[in-house]
Design a protein that fits this description.
Strand 2 and strand 3 form a beta hairpin. The longest helix is centred in the N-terminal third of the chain and has 12 residues. The protein contains seven helices and ten strands. The chain has a ten-stranded mixed β-sheet with strand order 1-8-2-3-7-4-6-5-9-10, with helices on both faces. With 212 residues, the chain is α/β, with parallel strands linked by helices.
Length: 212
């Protein structure tokens, strides 16, 4: 496939660029965008074609789940089979922001999105661009790091284009992205577990979940 590159103002996204990205996602294709947690590949989680394209673009192992960006905790309630008290404590403290929370997936989520685990990783972004796309499409978006698996996550649209040309359909270039990326925490077990370290420190999560 030929990969297109288009520039955007991430702080004040141009409507025509947003519409082009949304139209690409509606067609079951993969788009790279800047978010508040580095560059991310976004796609329609309910399109098995799109899900397969994301796995192919990254060279990702099929047993690894694909995180989703969501609008708010109400959308989380629609996508999870259940949400415990720890979820609401973390969401209230860290969302919108760079914390991904793993919860049990509802039956409406394709099993392939969960990496056949039945667990779902959710995050409410602070990124205006990402939130506008979620609003326009009125659905969650697959949101996995913009890189080939085992390579560093890309920090600019040009980097994404250089690494993933021919693997994704559209790169939305919003300039350089800084930060460490999102932290991931699993709250599906009796004891919570830090899965991936990012902007939010383990101690901050521990303090948030500490029994009062």
């Amino acid at each position: 496939m030929a990969t297109d590159l288009v520039e955007i103002n991430a702080d004040d996204p141009q409507p025509e660029v947003l519409e082009r990205a949304a139209a690409t996602i509606r067609r079951g294709k993969v788009v790279a965008i800047p978010t508040d947690a580095l560059y991310t590949l976004v796609a329609d989680p309910f399109s098995l074609r799109a899900v397969g394209q994301v796995f192919h673009a990254k060279g990702r192992e099929a047993h690894r789940s694909l995180p989703l960006l969501i609008r708010d905790t109400l959308m989380a309630e629609e996508l999870a089979s259940e949400l415990n008290n720890r979820f609401f404590l973390l969401a209230r403290r860290f969302w919108p922001g760079p914390l991904t929370i793993i919860v049990p997936a509802s039956a409406k989520i394709p099993l392939k999105v969960t990496g056949n685990t039945g667990r779902l990783a959710l995050r409410q972004p602070r990124s205006l661009l990402a939130n506008r796309l979620i609003e326009m499409l009125n659905q969650p978006l697959i949101a996995t790091s913009a890189n080939i698996s085992s390579h560093p996550t890309c920090r600019s649209g040009i980097e994404v284009f250089g690494m993933m040309d021919g693997r994704v359909d559209l790169v939305v270039d919003g300039g350089a992205s800084v930060g460490q990326g999102a932290t991931t925490v699993d709250i599906t077990e009796p004891y919570w577990r830090l899965i991936k370290t990012g902007t939010i420190e383990e101690k901050e999560i521990a303090d948030c979940l500490k029994p009062s």
